């Protein structure tokens, strides 16, 4: 797991069955050509992972990240204008 910041176009946050989110690239790196049982790095919840498993995008988290980024930009522009 990379622990890099999530972004809308790269490192898209995907929801595991337990509710925790990790980037698409890290989850894809875990996929094999056969079924494997993986565990969430945070809560250790087990779930099957196949090469064709698709996890939903965490749009709620993406929205929060986008909103936080806009607040930071507004704060910076306020202090430098």
From TrEMBL:
GO molecular function, one term: ubiquitin protein ligase activity
Taxonomic lineage of the native organism: Eukaryota, Metazoa, Ecdysozoa, Nematoda, Chromadorea
PROSITE patterns: ZF_RING_1, ZF_RING_2
Span of domain RING-type: 1-44
Biological process per Gene Ontology, one example term: protein ubiquitination
Pfam families: zf-RING_UBOX
Protein name: RING-type domain-containing protein
Keyword flag Protein biosynthesis: no
Organism (species): Wuchereria bancrofti
UniProt keyword terms in alphabetical order: Metal-binding, Zinc, Zinc-finger
InterPro entries noted in UniProt: RING_finger_E3_ubiq-ligases, Znf-RING_euk, Znf_RING, Znf_RING/FYVE/PHD, Znf_RING_CS
């Amino acid at each position: 797991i990379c622990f890099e910041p999530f972004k809308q176009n790269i490192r898209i946050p995907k929801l595991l069955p337990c509710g925790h989110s990790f980037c698409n690239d890290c989850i894809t790196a875990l996929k094999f050509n056969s079924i494997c049982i993986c565990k969430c790095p945070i809560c250790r919840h087990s779930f099957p992972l196949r090469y064709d498993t698709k996890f939903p995008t965490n749009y709620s988290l993406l929205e929060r990240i986008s909103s936080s980024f806009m607040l930071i930009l507004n704060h910076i522009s306020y202090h430098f204008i």
